[in-house]
Every structure is written in structure tokens, then in C-alpha cells.
Design brief:
Blueprint: H1 2-23, E1 25-29, E2 35-41, E3 44-52, E4 58-64, E5 67-75, E6 81-87, E7 90-98, E8 104-110, E9 113-122, E10 129-136, E11 139-147, E12 153-159, E13 162-169
Amino acid sequence: MKRRSLVVAVAISISLLRVAVSNSQVTNALMDGTWYIGEVKNGKPEGRGQQIWSDGRMYVGEFKNGKLDGRGTYAYPNGVKYLGEFKDGKEFGRGTLTMVNGTVYVGEFKDDQMEGQGKITYGVGKNQRTYVGQFKNGKMNGQGKMTYPDGKVEDGLWKDGKFMGASTSP
């Protein structure tokens, strides 16, 4: 009876191993305390997966050649969260960045920075102000429009996050 149980256990183990290998799913703890759970190709994350760093950062989404690439969600331990597209391990393309203080940016990213067309909303409730326009190097740059809680509007050219002028209303 013991021999038959051992044979069944080995057969089940081999069967589970085949499933794990055919689906290319792994759970891996790295030396630096990082965990990866998901699909792999040639020993690197590829396809859908989840990575958790020892400092509390977490990513759930798509990987390509071991890097964050495609759609995913990246959460920082301080509560900041990015949901969107990645390329070569960086925020790149369309995405939403939500800060702990209530600030939300929806728009384009390049190399982990706000870049291109976007909308950022600062504050909540009566203190909310919104900018819609162009960004460069993570700052308001180019044509854009800021609307303040008191109704004031700054519409025109922005540089390095500062309004340079054009039309202003009361």
C-alpha cells in the first residue's frame, strides 16, 4: 500500500510539474527580496505577471523580456498609484497617476514623466484647480488652461510649470 501511495504521489507531482512548465508560470524569490509570480520566457518575466519588491512597491501587468512592458498597475508604498502603459520598464504612453494628496493626472507619459497632452487636477472639493494642456519633463509646458476654484482662468503659454501669459480672465 505504501508503494502504491508513493507512485500516485510521484505521478501527481510530475503531472503538476508538466502543467507548471507548459503554462510557463513561476513563483520566484530573488536574492534582493523581490518576488515575481507569472509567466516566463527564457528565464525572464514575459506576459502577465506580478512583481513585489522588498521595499513594498508592487506591479501587476504585462512584461516583455524581463521588463514592465504593456498595460499594468504600479503601486508605491506611500500610496501613489500609476495605471497605464509601460515600455522598457518605464511609464510610457497613456496612463493615470493618482497621488496621496488627491492630485490626479490623466494623460501621456514618456520615460516615467508626464509628457504630451494631459489633464491634472489638484486638490479636492472647493479647493480644486485643473490644468488641461501640454506637459514636458513632468511640468506644464506649451499651450494649456488652468481653472481655479474662484473662477479665474489662465489660458495660454506655460513654461516649466509657470504661466507665461496670453489671456487671463477675472
